[in-house]
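Consider the following assembly input.
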Amino acid sequence: MNILRISNGRVIDAAQNLDQVTDLWIRGEHILGVGPQSVQATETLDASGKIVCPGLIDMHVHLREPGREEDETIATGAAAALAGGITTVACMPGTEPALDNQAAAEFVYLQAERAGLANVFPVGAITKGRNGAELAEIGGLVEGGAVAFTDADKPVVSAEIMRRALEYCRMFDKPVLCHAEDPELTKGGSMHEGVESMRLGLRGLPAAAEEVVIHRDLELARLTGGRLHIQHVSTAGGVELIRRAKKRGVRVSAEACPHHFFLTDKCLRSFDSNYKMNPPLRTESDVAALIEGLKDGTLDVIASDHSPLAAEKKVRELDLAPFGIIGLETLLPICVVALIEPGHLSWPQLVQKLTVNPARILGIDAGTLKPGAEADVAVIDPEVEWAIDPARFRSKSRNSPFGGLRVRGRAYAALVGGEVKFQV
Amino acid sequence: MASETAPVATASVPWTRRHLLGLEDLSRDELRTILDTAEQFVEQSGRCRKKRGNLAGKVVVNLFFEPSTRTRTSFSLAARRLSADTLDFTPSSSSLSKGETFIDTAKNIEAMGVDLVVVRHASSGAPHLLAQHLACGVINAGDGAHEHPTQGLLDIFTIRQKCGRIEGLTVGLVGDIAHSRVARSNIHGLVKLGAKVIVCGPPTLVPETIRELGVEVSHNLEAILPRCDVINMLRIQFERQRSGLFPSIQEYARLFGLDSTRLAKARKDLLLLAPGPINRGVEITPDVADGPNSAILQQVTNGLAVRMAVLYLLCGQPGEG
């Protein structure tokens, strides 16, 4: 059997509280262990000066297949993930048709297997057709492998439906992922409502539109005992609501996206639609609150909310362009620039939010380098400087505002099931 | 037709811009340069109606994606007075209805050898998008609720003409500030030139955040009237009422309309402006609109001079015949 030694890297595994320069050994598809082993390596990958950690997990991506293959496919999305050091993604059900039944969930596995790249876990729709009216067949979706439930970027308007979803999912111990938005308050909006939207004459999405729904769903999680995960928290008020709910023992987890803790609504002054996403870029004080929430553990996970959009849809008038930013291939460097370099998070803390935490929330067997675990590994060069060039992305889409940005840190290699699937 | 070729008086500062996208971007000196240049055109058009040759051989296209009569006509006339060739483009007569994008449409028109595009669009930032994608000059003739720089300039020009200065004046902007591109352009220009600006309307139409632009916020027209040298009554868009931003046109008129009773509380020499088209009986009663304080028609005349100045500065040849 093949024995791979990844030598002399800084091995970080938050699940084992491990952070030391040593060797990581892989036998076949599984982790053999760290440190000296009583076997001979058949292959060696030199990781001197690099970080060796569990393959990153991005629990919030839109892969568009089926239905919108002009934006992305499961294969191109999985390739983009690997180039970003991400070996596992959870894809949202906002496809056409929606992932709202067992066969649809199984289709995702089938396409991921055909691509043979990263692991792809489907997230099922809460309601049939994501219409917000009737619960989807959640049991069937679980049978088909769905790891969580959400109506993706369509907010669940009915508190009653949300309540029942939280209750029903408890039976399967699956989390409900909340896109917190009151659509009446955000109607016609293009960007955060504040000084900048006033200046640009654009309709805004007020912070309150996110916070009222976070508040509602936290109360519903408390009422039902269901497991709630707040996606892409973008406001200071949202962070504070979640912090307090956690103290009260509500079963809630939360995520932040790199663009939200790295950019502000001032970027919209360029009228560049690549800065348009939902939730929108907020203000400097929101950015500070997100970073504080990441530091104190209120925000458990960092995810990209990778939302690919073909150029013909995205490059147009700002208020008419659709929401969305891609992020699989920029997740890591933006985290380095925004969190590691200023000293907000240590590498082990960052790795935790990108591996073991999302794995725990989704209930999947991944995110660790424990002996016997599936050998999904990321080798990261933390020092390499480079300029982001969307033209070279593996993703099918280019809707990133980070083109030309000089950053530090990128994936050097990514292994899935012991096999090197990506290497610089 | 005879063609006047004498250069316009030297600009106060050298003009370097290729586009006019908004007044927020302009310096105080640049604003003064436009106003001073417009002054020349007013004097000249008063003396004789000869065409000038400054834009001879240039092509100016009006690209209006939103209906407009006054601004479009004013730009056309201004361009023709400077001997430019002009072309009006309206989306109904175009391939936009066949699904072509806004940018592609503009690029196709530019490919016909256009020097300046005058664009109006319902989307904030549409002119900025064109400025990025086109090689020719772009003039913003109104983008969404963002800016309407030539309207702002002609309002400011009229104030300077009637009051003799801008600095130290108190100017009230009344109405739907939140959705008004005219309000934003006025605010940026007036504040930069040293006026005090008070914006006035119901809180649903006057966002608190507008204070950041250096203006005072009021919700009481009668209270601010005695302090104002100038009042600019912005048009109420009727669709705002349908979206629940105020209860009824009647209530709006009662609280923020200008009639002769209310006008009596203002200074005798109050200058009254309205960017038009006005809703008679809503923002302003007919007797006030047509009364001695009103400079509403003067604004339209000045609009021509201001637009000639802008066209000239962006692509005119001083001595060309």
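The mean pLDDT of chain A is 97. Ask yourself how this observation constrains the way the partners meet.
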